[in-house]
Amino acid sequence: MKIAIISDVHGNLQALEAVLPEIKKESPDKIIFLGDVVGYGANPDECCEIIKEIADVFIIGNHDSAVIGKTDVEWFNPDAREAILWTRENLKKENMAFLENFVETHNVSDFLFSHGSPVNPMDFIYVFTTEAVREIYLWAEGRYRCVFVGHSHITLSFFIDSSENPIPFIEDEIKLEGGDFVINVGSVGQPRDGDPRAFFAILDTEKKLYKAKRVKYNVKEAAERILKNGLPPFLAYRLYTGE
Questions:
Q1: Where are the domains of the chain?
Q2: Alpha-carbon gap, residue 212 to 76, rounded angstroms
């Protein structure tokens, strides 16, 4: 099975629209969304409609959860909080209902998908330290070959062998053999690893092969829409640098 993995769209319609034709070229059997369709960006409704149409699995992110009132907005920094409150006021009722149906985790055979750490999914723990990865490894008890997460907006992978010491690395193509893996899949609409291009990934479950993909999009238009809607300027300008 070929699976397209996308995460952290964050209301960035321009980035999402840019990755769609690239995903189509891959002819995936399934599309799994790892959460945060809303937050930060100026087009939450349009992004919800697209994700609703193209994805087969919808995993809840912390911004999705906050918009529907499941996560306290005080947990967020001021800019993120302002964007969440703006989204609550502007999101259509049917898309609020759509977010209510998102799941916490999903697995396909021995591949697990979550927004943050799957150990306690609704705590939305970031997974970019060896400590967080080791906790996942011990919790999984060998059940999963690879755990895919979003949330951090960075592309960082970890390899764990019998020594139980996670080794961080960055690679665009990974053969998922010889041990266990935890992979941060990056972000469609809010990259934070210094590369402003939109990110998605392809997993071939039969070949045990993971491939990272980057796509250029109209950053200027996405930023201008954020500013036009009165959202915090920082959310617009950070798109240019991917940080």
A1: 2-241
A2: 29
For residues 65 and 39, is the Cβ–Cβ distance under 8 A? no
| 97-127 residues labelled b (16+ CB within 10 A) or e (exposed) | ebbeebeebbebebbbbbbbbbbebeebbeb
pLDDT, averaged in runs of 10, over the chain (243 residues): 98 98 98 98 98 98 98 95 97 98 97 98 96 95 96 96 89 95 97 96 97 98 98 97 93
The one-letter amino acid code at 221 reads: E
Global pTM value: 0.96
Closest of 211, 218, 134 to residue 172, by C-alpha: 211
- CATH superfamily for 2-241 is Metallo-dependent phosphatases (3.60.21.10)
**Residue 77 burial by Cβ neighbours in a 10 Å radius (0-12, 13-18, 19+):** exposed
- Lookup: tokens for 190: 């809010």
Res 162: pLDDT:
79
